Amino acid sequence: MGQAMNDIRALVFDVFGTVVDWRSGIAREAGPFLARHGKGDVSPERFADAWRLRYQPAMEEVRSGRRAFIRLDVLHRENLEAILKDFDIDVAKVPCAELDALNLAWHRLDPWPDVVAGLARLKSRTIIAPLSNGNIILMIDIAKRAGLGWDAILGAEVVRAYKPTPEAYLRTVDVLAMQPAEVCLVAAHNGDLAAARKCGLRTAFVPRPKEHGPGQTEDLRPEQDWDVVARDFGDLATAFGV
Amino acid sequence: MGQAMNDIRALVFDVFGTVVDWRSGIAREAGPFLARHGKGDVSPERFADAWRLRYQPAMEEVRSGRRAFIRLDVLHRENLEAILKDFDIDVAKVPCAELDALNLAWHRLDPWPDVVAGLARLKSRTIIAPLSNGNIILMIDIAKRAGLGWDAILGAEVVRAYKPTPEAYLRTVDVLAMQPAEVCLVAAHNGDLAAARKCGLRTAFVPRPKEHGPGQTEDLRPEQDWDVVARDFGDLATAFGV
Question: Which of A221, B30, B157, B160 qualifies as a FRET site for B71, CA 20 to 30 Å off?
């Protein structure tokens, strides 16, 4: 590990896809929901994909300035209602409380198998925190359920900006009272890392080749010479010498 | 424990005085500083008290709206320069880096002896987080050094409002996506608890009779019928059934 990596004082993590397997987690809770509404033939994974597909466009409304900052739980809830019609489910016939409950499936996502042990090792060396577009209570609930020992919950709601806008990274660096090169983003997504690098942050790529299921084609490989490329969080901890 | 307390889903904590012993911690680092600048005869505790005395007036500039929100580390640094003349130390003769280093004494405060074990027990029942006027990296550094297992760092910098304004409590409740009565403030200060109660939060008083040294006269006793009154954090955990 080079001197540049020795200078790193905080590791900040993308969460959806990098830390947790959102697709399996959402599918697990969507399955019973679909069955209850006469759609037991629909693939719950396809439902998860449809829900996630509205994620970027919803945040783009905020990033563009067309909409004031609003937390991801609210965007997820709006997106859920929006996709019901795609699956021929009549929104008017689904109790509000049932939609609220399904929306909390995002709070119950499981981490990839290497995450808990890897984070515990990394935490012994440096500050670890999510830098996710997910809001604070969403991150708290995932972490408490899974046993992720974050030192803080950072991310979009703290800095009121969604990745990949520069503000999301630079305000996080400012909150940490560090230089950009003292902060390293860990992500499974080349685009997230590219945006962080433009802001001067260090970058660590951990591929998650099953994030989008068996047919995944993107983010299988590093697309730039990221500062670290690791197989998983255990390998990442080893790269940081812990 | 009554039903009201069973409904509590998050415990949020005042930190300076309630969780950490700021006076001893600041005095410990002020002593060598004073000696280096020819003021070895000055009581480091008196220096700590003088520094702390400027805490509320500095935040009042922000609370009143006369000044935009700015993190506590900056206010502490300004206050440090301001008190040097009270102790006949020429600011111009003290290297900036030395003042920066002394300012970080606030990041190295020790918790009261009952805190680490008490928080670990409470964390098994509920979300625990600081709701302090201290900024995020200040809270991270204290927690990491002392081994406080917060589930998140909440507080003034997250909600951009200083206690005891209602916004500091109500926006924190909003971030948690809870009702005010589901959140309980733990504090050693009756004034903090009174402000939280006005916002509908639950309240737990833990006296810290040595926060201000041996001659302390205020906050020795509960001044209202707080929902919980506990001797220390161990007793608080017992009150919450963990």
Answer: B30
Q: Which CATH superfamily is domain A3-21+110-239 in?
A: HAD superfamily/HAD-like (3.40.50.1000)
Q: Tell me: the pLDDT tens digits for B13-56? A: 999 999 999 999 999 999 999 999 999 999 999 999 999 999 99
Q: Which residues of A touch B176 (CB under 8 A)?
A: 136-137, 140
Q: Which of A140, A144, A148, A159 to mutate to test the interface with B (most CBs of B within 10 A)?
A: A140
According to the model, what pLDDT value does residue A104 have?
A: 98
CATH class of A22-108: mainly alpha
Cβ pair A15, A130 in contact under 8 A:
yes
Peptide bond into A164 cis (omega under 30): yes
Q: CA B22 to CA B106: how far, in whole Å?
A: 7
Q: Kindly report the CATH number that applies to the domain delimited by B3-21+109-239.
A: 3.40.50.1000
Work out the burial of residue A72: count CB atoms within 10 Å of its CB; fewer than 13 is exposed, 13-18 middle, 19 or more buried: buried
CB A239 within 8 A of CB A230: yes
Name chain B contacts of A154, Cβ cutoff 8 Å: 136
